[in-house]
Amino acid sequence: MTAPIVRTRAELRAMTRSWRQAGETIGVVPTMGALHDGHLSLVARAKEMSTRVIVTIFVNPKQFNNPDDLANYPRTEHEDARKLARFAVDAIYVPDGAQMYPDGFATNVSVAGLTDVLCGAHRAGHFDGVATVVSKLFLQTSADFAFFGEKDFQQLQVVRRMARDLDIPVEVVGCPTIREIDGLAMSSRNLLLSDQARARAATLHEVMEETAEKLGQGALITDLRAVAEARLKAAGFGEIDYLEMRTHDTLALIEAAREPARLFAAVWMAGVRLIDNIEVPEAR
Length: 284
Ligand code: AMP
Prior knowledge:
By secondary structure, the protein is of the alpha/beta class. The protein has 2 domains: 5-175, HUPs (Rossmann fold), CATH 3.40.50; 188-278, Pantoate-beta-alanine ligase, C-terminal domain (Pantoate--beta-alanine Ligase, Chain: A,domain 2, 2-Layer Sandwich), CATH 3.30.1300.10. It contains 11 helices and 9 strands. It has helices at residues 9-21, 37-49, 67-72, 77-85, 97-100, 118-122, 126-141, 153-165, 195-201, 203-216, 221-234, and strands spanning 5-6, 26-31, 52-57, 91-93, 145-149, 171-175, 240-247, 261-269, 272-280. The strands form 2 sheets. Strands 1-4-3-2-5-6 form a 6-stranded parallel β-sheet, sandwiched between helices. α7 (126-141) packs across α8. It is globular. Bound molecules: adenosine monophosphate. The site of adenosine monophosphate has 17 residues, from α2 and β5.
């Protein structure tokens, strides 16, 4: 059975109020749609942890710094609802722009520090857009738990900081990255790749795995970067926005993996920007 599609704040509020009165717990999975198994893994986790689950689908214009990217973003609502049917979620919340940003909307949620680096440095305003919409979704759904993928690790840390700083009583749960068989992290943007570009894109994960392994053996990222970047270029990648190792919690740049760290990359393949990150084993 497909879940009810809720389009207004008022309908959503009526639902969540009745659930709360019945003592239920609410889990929310915020998405931009074009759902794949990565999103569905968050839904499965939400079902385990909460008695009611809301999946939100909103292609948030405020987090797109590039109008073409927003225009080209895949929109597959009917198919998404079909994919969610087997999880028996309680509501699919699909607000439109006017529900989210009514006339006169003037507030911006901005998380300092964590957003200065990585995607924040390359996509002006992106994380303000994310923090603003996610704080609204937390308040609109009054969720107890919210599920985010480690695929967007910086986003996960930004959302955690925002919820803590604004005293929003939600537990942010990070979930592991789901990958295609060849290692490419699942992403709605993969749909925009031609077959040939899609096949080449798997090299990103291969190169990241090899680099992370060497970092775990004590190598410095400065000594590995040239080889990694050359391999990416040879595989057909274009611009490399970043290939960096950073600490797990504060996203501080580090050269050697002597504390919990992750390797982060953002690279362009045939006009599509792909991001990925993996844990780096701690070097002894
Ligand atoms: P998006 O629709 O791309 O905004 O993603 C919605 C949520 O799904 C975010 O929390 C993402 O981190 C998460 N997500 C996207 N891709 C994956 C993946 N491959 N594995 C796990 N979670 C993912």
